[in-house]
Amino acid sequence: MSEIINDYELVYLSNYELSEQAYLVISNKYSKFIYKMIHQLHIPYHLIDDYYQEGLMMLDKAIHTFDEFRYKTFMRYFELILLRHFLRLRKDSFTYVLYDNLDYIVDTTNHMLEGIDHHLEFGSKVEKIIYQKYFVEKQTIDYIVADNGLDKKKVYNALYRIKTKLKKQ
């Protein structure tokens, strides 16, 4: 592999000829690109290694699914797969906050909800009913519609108004 080989040949060799050397060459070639994408997306420092491993898995996926007649270049195809996967990972990642005293959290949450009840100004009787049924009693929209004989669109509109009022507070 001393001569210069383009991406199409490397993908073919690693896919169909099962050349380990071709796979190593293409993974070394695109490892800097994976790090570049990680830094462009401002991934936290403690997650860089995890994202790099995910990037290598996406490179393997791109090698196995690349069709040179469908896509323009392997680089653009891999970039698209990698970007979509990183964005999905970032969106789905959970942030955990550990608290020592869980009673404090429950009391604070209940106090906040009680405060909202007293300070929220409802524009109509329907908003008050929907707030009580949806936010306090945790009933579904379909149940609220059936139970109160309201139009579904009216319920959604009232929910929208209530949510905007809650955001303002």
Can you lay out the helices and strands and say which pair or pack?
Layout: H1 7-15, H2 20-40, H3 48-65, H4 74-92, H5 102-119, H6 125-136, H7 141-148, H8 152-168
Helix pairs in contact: 1-2, 2-3, 3-4, 6-8
Give me a quick take on this structure:
The chain is mostly helical. It has helices at about 5-15, 20-40, 50-65, 75-90, 100-120, 125-135, 140-150, 150-169.
Describe the protein's architecture and organization:
With 169 residues, the protein is an all-alpha fold. It folds into two domains: 7-92; 119-168. It is built from eight helices and no strands. It has helices at residues 7-15, 20-40, 48-65, 74-92, 102-119, 125-136, 141-148, 152-168. Helix 1 crosses helix 2 (20-40), helix 2 (20-40) packs across helix 3 (48-65) and helix 3 packs across helix 4 (74-92). The longest helix is centred in the first third of the chain and has 21 residues, at 20-40. It is elongated, with a radius of gyration of 27 Å. 14% of the residues are buried. The model is unreliable at 104-112 (pLDDT under 50).
